[in-house]
Amino acid sequence: MTTRGGRRRGARPRHGDPEGRPAGPVLRAVGLSRFYGQGESTVVAVDRVDLDVPTGQTLAVTGPSGCGKSTLLHLLGGLDRPDEGEVWLGGQRIDLLGERALARLRRRAVGFVHQDFHLMDELTAAENVELPALLAGDSPRTARRRAAALLDRVGLADRARHVPSELSGGQRQRVAIARALVNEPLVVLADEPTGNLDTAATHDILRLFADLHAGGQTLVLVTHDERVAATADRIVSLWDGASADDTPLDAGGSRLGALLGWEE
Amino acid sequence: MQDVVLALLAKEPSHGYDLRARLLAALGPLGETLNAGQIYVTLTRLEKAGLVVQEREDAPVRGPRRKVYALTAAGQERVAAWLAEGLGPRADVTEFHLQLVAAAESGMASPLALIEARRRELRRSLAEAQRAVLTHDRDSEAGLLLEGVALRLHADLRWLEACERTWSATTAHKEGGGN
Question: Rounded CA gap, A136 and A211, in Å?
Fold first, then answer.
């Protein structure tokens, strides 16, 4: 018999969970660490992070710059590999996959949203959204149909034929979100998605995330902005690469009244 | 003010003059309006309420034996309750700052634990405010108020980051110094 703690850190079956937990976490990190450099100059970017993200949750990861939150996101999405620990996505351990298998899984199961959009300048909004679907093997027709539906969902149906330089920052980010969704990923991972946007565009993006959340999309959001983090179901704070706090934000509270001075 | 004065007495009995100096150090220019009279009025009220008593100083460093104020058991309890209860989302910066100073001074609560508890409280309030911001028209009266509320909570949370940095350094320094 192993203890619960022993089992978490110890050997796990490679594929899936033998106990079969349908409502288990869609994304899981176990003892995740990432180091840079060697010897005395080693920098610990991520320090033994344990994290479970249940299906449908919006999780915000916050912390000061350099706290390791972007590195953590890259590890969770299979863009980088941990030096220690495990990453599980959809019941599958991904940190041990070979490069090609990992790339294939990333394309299908993970949607990335970046601070500076990462759109292809010479492609239209619609073509940008179609691209990952085509790369994942969808027919051009299917890709076109899905891109059109998603651009409509993010409120940009009338901008589909414009190239990024003809779009505002907020519109570009909405295209990037549509692109992240085109392969129906298990998780959307967003790294400072509103970092380059003004207040109005930030609110549009946050409303869009709330809409995705209502549709059951799992979302992990790295941000240093408390107002962005405040829209999540839960906030995990990183401090020097380690998880320092984990605060659930219950949506049903009634604290706003306490901000009025009338009770005195 | 009463709670702060009480908490500053938790470490050791003090003279009104020392309490004022300690408060001035913590408040900087914001303490300019704080006069000695206010401290003594507060101490007198606390004494009437049975939270402090006056006693003779044991062994003065120099000069005559002065009267010092000491916490009663009830005073001790009240300090513990004040440090444990949290201040609510409307508390201003000075109030929470003094609570951190008093917590560290008295040794009855950890400033870092207070910061963490307050961050949770403010985050939950901001979560509600921000959700409301997103569902109200920005140009409506209610939308404008909500934006102000969210901005203020946001500012408080950013200041807590500074508090965390400074008090972690202070705590580490103390522990490193073999205190």
Answer: 25
Looking at the complex, does the CB of residue A258 fall below 8 Å from at least one CB of chain B?
yes
Q: Which pTM was predicted?
A: 0.84
C-alpha A157: how far from its chain's center? 24
For A55-79+97-249, CATH number out of 3.30.460.80, 1.10.10.10, 3.40.630.30, 3.40.50.300 equals: 3.40.50.300
Q: How far is A212 from chain B (nearest CA, A)?
A: 14
H-run or E-run covering B77: helix B73-85
The DSSP 8-state label assigned to residue A83 in this structure reads S
CB nearest A255 (choices: B125, B138, B157): B125
CA distance A206 to A118: 19
ipTM for the predicted complex comes to 0.82
Express each pLDDT in A44-85 by its tens digit: 999 999 999 999 999 999 988 888 899 999 999 999 999 999
CATH architecture of B1-86: Orthogonal Bundle (1.10)
Report pLDDT digits (tens) over B24-62. Answer: 999 999 888 888 888 899 999 999 999 999 987 766 566
